[in-house]
Amino acid sequence: VQVMESGGGLVQPGGSLRLSCAASGFTFSDYAMRWYRQAPGKEREFVAAIGANDPSTYYADSVKGRFTIARDNDKNMVYLEMNSLKPEDTAVYYCNRNSYWGQGTQVTVSS
Is residue 104 within 8 Å of residue 92, measured between CB atoms? Predict the structure, then answer.
């Protein structure tokens, strides 16, 4: 099982980024997928989740209305569209399937 994030970078407050997660080694459509993040000096926290074969999505209150999680089961990809970014969104963002984690991608929101 592998999950690999990409798409992080430096963005100004109010800007947007789209993170991608490429999954392999398992039947992707059978599993819910999640995004987490970890800011410096803080614990890793839940950001968003999406169901396996249904469109159910779940968000942390801190990102609700600004972030959108989506998946493409044909491409084994999960995405996190992030809009209206704030400095407090600065963190390493991780893709997750149960106990499997990617290496993370850094998102920095700063002017």
Answer: yes
